[in-house]
Amino acid sequence: MSDYRYAFLEPGRFARGWHIVAFSRELEPGAVQRLHYFGVDLVLFRGESGVAAVLDAHCPHLGAHLASDGGRIVGDALACPFHGWTFAADGECVDIPYATRIPERARHALRGWPVQERNGFIALWHDPEGGAPEDYLPVIKEWGHGEQGWGDWRFHRSRIRAQPCDVIENIVDIAHFPHVHGGEVREFENRFGERTVTQVSRVQQTAAARSVIPPGLPFDMEAMRAQNVDNPADAWGDATYHGPSIMYYYTESRGGAVDYRSWWVNYHTPVNSEEVDLCSAVIVSGLDGEPVPEEFAEQYAIGAHAAFGQDVEIWKDKVYRADPILCDGDGPINKLRRWYEQFYLPRNGAAQP
Fold first, then answer.
1. Are residues 84 and 193 in the same domain?
2. Which one of 126, 158, 186 terminates a domain?
3. Helix or strand or coil: residue 179?
4. How far apart are CA 124 and CA 127, in angstroms?
5. What are the Cα distances from residue 310, in Å, to 163, 185, 196, 304?
6. What DSSP line would sit under 30-55, residue for residue?
7. Measured between alpha carbons, how far is 155 from 335 in angstroms, rounded to an integer?
8. Tens digit of pLDDT for each residue in 242-299?
9. Same domain (yes/no): 177, 91
10. Residues 180-208: what's their mean pLDDT?
């Protein structure tokens, strides 16, 4: 019996589900990259046919890192730079150039991770039980449609000291907006599904609210907020976590400096028991289907990640209360925790929302 109230609080335990590890444009055909997630060294590569794959990083022969010397692509497989043992995208050893036969023990000695490339991002499936991946990540049909003003993702990624459970609780935390993000909540609703949790909200910047200001921003967040207060926009947003770590957010805004519509993909992928990679990616278009000004688009992408930076200032030195004292103005935090727990429990013991 665990001493922890929730399975997601156990050190070294990571959520079952899809986790983004890169954007498509970061991996050209023939490229090999080192990754480290879930406390494990990994290698990401794209074969000659364009298919992306993720393998455990160290060769089962004598332990060389498969990305050493820049990695060696052979067709759609990856060859170890030490002795040339060659592995397919699923981890199967398909060639040992100096051997007359491949030892049976070697054929499936290297783990290949299930990978899904969708919407311009590359995600891998993590499951301690080794179960088959679920297909729950929706297609964002607007992605890549430059003729409609959308184009490719503008993204900002940072490695932070935080727990995944801290990040995901923002989806239900109505009470932090006027203290962290400088906004007054006009409308707020949460909806729970089997693998999804959604926030539908309308938040307006007000002079009475307070903001947390992250250090090192390339713009004046207070000045921007003051401008938004003086020139308020009518904006709404629909944010949905699909699984434990990938959030899609659609928003429209009218009446501010620029009328726009935008998709965000926010993700937090665990690096180890203490750190996550936190990323915000946006595509933004005018409401009329025309591109927005380039300066606005780039500033908008930076601002999206800076909004998470406001939360990071709180997360980095908070403690996690497994049994919090809540009041009637808080969102459904305990319900969210019960929903989130399912991704850490064995399938036959998964909690329902």
1. no
2. 126
3. helix
4. 10
5. 16, 17, 24, 10
6. T-EEEEEETTEEEEEEE-TTS-EEEE
7. 31
8. 999 999 999 999 988 899 999 999 999 999 999 999 999 999 999 988 999 999 999 9
9. no
10. 94
Tokens of 36: 């480290």
Kindly list the distances between the CA atom of residue 116 and the CA atoms of 33, 123, 243, in Å, as whole numbers in the listed order.
17, 5, 14
Residue 227: CB partners within 8 Å, gap ≥ 6? 257
**Is residue 9 in some structural domain?**
no
Q: Are 143 and 153 in contact (CB under 8 A)?
A: yes
| Residue 29 β-bridge partners | none
Residue type, 195: R
Contact present, 224 and 319 (Cβ < 8 Å) = no
- The answer to the question of residue 269 being in a domain is yes
The CB-side HSE value for 94 (13 A sphere, CA atoms) comes to 13
Select from 93, 126, 159 the last residue of a domain: 126
**Residues 71 and 210 both lie in one domain:** no
Q: Are 103 and 95 in contact (CB under 8 A)?
A: no
CA 329 to chain CA centroid, Å, is: 29
Same domain membership, residue 303 and residue 233? yes
Picking from 335, 279, 223, the residue whose alpha carbon sits closest to that of residue 19 is 279
Is 2 a domain residue? Answer: no
Q: Which domain holds residue 308?
A: 146-341
- Type and span of the H or E element at 22: strand 17-23
CA distance 265 to 229: 26
DSSP 114: P
* 349 domain residue, yes or no: no
Identify whether residues 120 and 157 lie together within a single domain: no
Distances (CA, A) of 202 to 188, 265, 280: 7, 19, 20
Main-chain dihedrals φ then ψ at residue 132, nearest 5 degrees: -65, 145
Residue type for position 230: D
209 and 72 in a common domain: no
Q: How many domains does the chain have?
A: 2
pLDDT in tens, 98-145: 999 999 999 999 999 999 999 999 999 999 999 999 999 999 999 988
90 with 159, same domain: the answer is no
